[in-house]
Amino acid sequence: MNNFTELEVIFESSVELYGTITLPQDEDTEHPAVIIIPGSGPVDRNGNIGQGKLTTNLYQELAHLFADQGYVTLRYDKRGTGKSGGEYLSTGFWDLVHDAEEALLFLQQHPQVDSSKIVLAGHSEGTVIVTAVAERKSQVAGIMLLSGGVDNLGEALVHQRKRSYKELKSKKGVMGWFFRRVIDEEKQEKKVFKQMKPVFESDKDVVKIQGFFKQPAKWLREHYAYNTREALSKISCPILAIQGDKDPLVENEVLKELAELAAGPSEYYIIPDMEHALKEQQEPRTILNYKKVVKDTINKPIHPLAKEKMLSWLERI
Predict the structure, then answer these.
(1) Which residues of 286-299 are buried (b: 16+ CB within 10 A; e: fewer)?
(2) What is the pLDDT along the chain (317 residues), one digit of tens a residue?
(3) How far is CA 138 from CA 75, 170, 261, 268, 315, in A?
(4) Phi, psi of 203, deg, nearest 5
(5) What CATH fold (topology level) applies to the domain 4-152+226-316?
(6) Distance (Å, rounded) from C-alpha 25 to C-alpha 29?
(7) So where are the chain's domains?
């Protein structure tokens, strides 16, 4: 039996945002709180995409994990997803940051929340968003960087492409021979830059590349321009970063920079056999077969070591 209740809430940003708040049963006490900031894509408050297209329930599971420890939690539908207003493709990075700031304000004003003890937990793209919020808002009690951190979006995408080149070249037999002959990483990166040039030279929210592929141009331009490392040097609240060693979408090595970058206390953990959605994965790390691996791990619970590290850190800050 859960020791919390859940209610749907609405809060105002430049659009109306819908979410779910979990409240401990003890209504007469102010509680610490965690806001869960979602990752990239049209992800709803529970961490799901497209009415069954991809159902992870990751954010719901995180919310319940923290709520069981006495935390109020808030998770919400991104713009243009679930019940929230707005249009997903035309939403920019700073729009998402503003939404997270309004979520923070909403909880600061809630009678069951200790406004001095609100933590932001960002997953994937959410790690960049919570970094931006913590840089701008000194009231944040701490930030969790889950499956991301240190790199900005542009740097993360470069790591992902390089990993895909490496996997293609390492294939066995004729296929490996072929890819080793045709893939020139420098030329591939120049090709990507050329394809994306219309996005970066435009001032439009949405741009078509190659004639018909719609790209979230505003979102990309603003993400690429944001310097996460510079921002971390201005953040004095405690920081926890967690990544999995089976996660092909992040570069684990960059977390080694965290201690020197962060203005305040920080710690990081690379969890063995954990993938991007914080689930246990026994299969090899792969970006080319990432979607297949996700389907195999989707119904697993959050990795127990990740749970342990998150809850231990929350107790200490």
Answers:
(1) bbeebeebbeebee
(2) 578 999 999 999 999 999 999 998 887 789 999 999 999 999 999 999 876 677 889 999 999 999 999 999 999 999 999 999 999 999 999 999 999 999 999 999 999 999 999 999 999 999 999 999 999 998 999 999 999 999 999 999 999 999 999 999 999 999 999 889 989 899 999 999 888 899 999 999 999 887 678 999 999 999 999 999 999 999 999 999 999 999 999 999 999 999 999 999 999 999 999 999 999 999 999 999 988 888 888 889 999 999 999 999 999 98
(3) 21, 47, 17, 22, 20
(4) -115, 15
(5) Rossmann fold (3.40.50)
(6) 9
(7) 4-152+226-316, 157-218
52 DSSP 8-state letter: T
| Count of positions (residues) in the chain | 317
Order of strands across the sheet that contains 4-12:
4-12, 16-24, 72-76, 31-37, 113-123, 142-146, 239-244, 266-271
Q: 27 phi and psi, to 5 degrees?
A: -80, -15
Residue whose structure tokens are 């920081």? 239
Question: Nearest to residue 200, comparing CAs of 170, 220, 229, 172?
Answer: 220
- Which of 196, 195, 12 shows the shortest CA–CA distance to 98? 12
Antiparallel, parallel or unpaired: β 31-37 and 113-123: parallel
Residue at 147: amino acid letter: S
Q: Locate all alpha helices (DSSP H) within 26-152, ordered by sequence.
A: 58-67, 93-108, 125-136
Q: How far apart are the first and last CA of the chain?
A: 28
Per-residue tokens: 174: 């004729």
